Amino acid sequence: MTMRTSWWLLAAGSWLAGSMAVQAGAPWEERSAAIGAAGQTVAGRISGDALERLRAIGLELFKGEFTVNDGVGRPGATQAIVPTKRRHPAATEFNRTAGLDANACSGCHNKPIVGGAGDFVTNVFVSEGFESADFDTTDPQFSNERGTNHLFGAGLIELLAREMTADLQGARDKGLDDAARTGEVQAVRLVTKGVDFGRLTVHPDGIVDLDKLDGVDMDLVIRPFSQKGVMTSLRQFTVNAMNQHHGMEAVERFGGRWTGTADFDEDGRQDELADGDISALVAWQAGLEPPTTAVVEQAFAARAASGAHLFESYGCDSCHRQELPLSSLDFADPGPVDAAGTLNDGQVKQVATYDLASLPWAKTLKHNEKGEVLVPLFGDLKRHVMTDNRIDRFGNELLAQRFVDRNIFMTTELWGISSTAPYGHRNDITTLDEVILAHGGEARAARDAYADASKDDRADLIAFLKTLVIPQ
């Protein structure tokens, strides 16, 4: 049985179109040969039908059950984000801790549909350390357990993070200029889109005091993905996940330019994922429609409306902000702030720009008086202390992750929460009531207001959260 697919590539400013008939299950280099043409790049502005064609390729990659013919396996390499050779030969290719642990991305991201979240059984393990990550135990001294997050609205999340990063870094740079010009110490408030990330003290000699920084890394880059807020972009997330979960290694990180070999993982397959393959995956994820509010029958709607009011009055919206403004729906790929190992816009001749405004769901988004898109994420893209001496549902965490302390987590965006049970950073909390009561730290006051409320009021707030769904 054969399938015939049209593959689209934009390179050197002009469309290159091709079609190919390939045998199902053929080696991946055959199936992706068209994407790999012309320098293995996707570039230029891509919108409308052209964007949907590129996204269709990304969906097939996301659902594809990779095999050894494609390059599955990394017998000579670990899952570390820095290319790292194994200390010992791989005892087995599939391993529920360090991976391999899935045949397809959709094996974990599937609730309620492809691109969604996962049940407890899909949990993964992340090791601390950028190399030497060669382990085979669930002991929390060596790894932290993580549930699967959904990807709907992820393109909007990344665009918000990029704009917020630009605001924060712009404020810092202005403070440096002002301090140098005036010879006076400058106090720089770090506020973007109404979210407060603390302040900097900037000295005329260029020294920047970071003691009052809050909820963001020292480089002021917002990293919106993962429970700890340590992933900068969908591209970084994709390259990391493909290696850890499948042993499918991207050329942009594991290819000869960086490692000196086209088969770094020693599995007999060279250049397993071209730049264009990663771009197609990014385009599909970035274009996923955002979660929405369900239309419910009148009696339930009344309870949900009451719950929405209580959500604000209890202070839940101090972190779970209903919406943040976004200036542009142009998604540049690769983006501006990724570090080495993930392509960024300084490493390519021309970026691709995915016009998210051309996708049908974009017409459903609301705008403010400035014409900005209002992204209804119910989050703030900021890290917060989530435990205290009375609540510690994170006690299984013994390791910081990428220098983020064990009790600090990124605010979970609540859009789609009704469609993505179970809850918590390791999918071990079964109800919305439980996960609210598991809050501590900076969320203590809001949690206690909910805990002290009447049974009916608590039910109303849960009814409101039940309206936040992923469209199917």
Structural Rg: 23 Å
> Runs with pLDDT <50, length 5+?
1-39
Instruction: Give the integer mean of the pLDDT values.
Output: 87
CATH level-1 class of one domain: Mainly Alpha
| Topology pattern, helix = H, strand = E | EEHHEHEEHEEEHHHHEHEEEEEEEHHHE
Main β sheet profile:
3 strands, mixed
- Class inferred from helices and paired strands: alpha+beta
Strands ordered across the widest β-sheet:
3-12-11
Shape: globular
CATH third-level topology of one domain? Cytochrome Bc1 Complex, Chain D, domain 2
- End-to-end Cα distance: 30 Å
The proportion of strand residues reads 15-25%
InterPro entries: Cyt_c-like_dom, Cyt_c-like_dom_sf, Cytochrome_c_Peroxidase/MauG, DHOR
Protein name: Cytochrome c peroxidase
GO molecular function: peroxidase activity
Organism: Rhizobium halophytocola
Keyword list:
three-stranded mixed sheet; three-stranded antiparallel sheet; 472 residues; 15% strand; globular; Cytochrome Bc1 Complex, Chain D, domain 2; 12 helices; alpha+beta; disordered N terminus
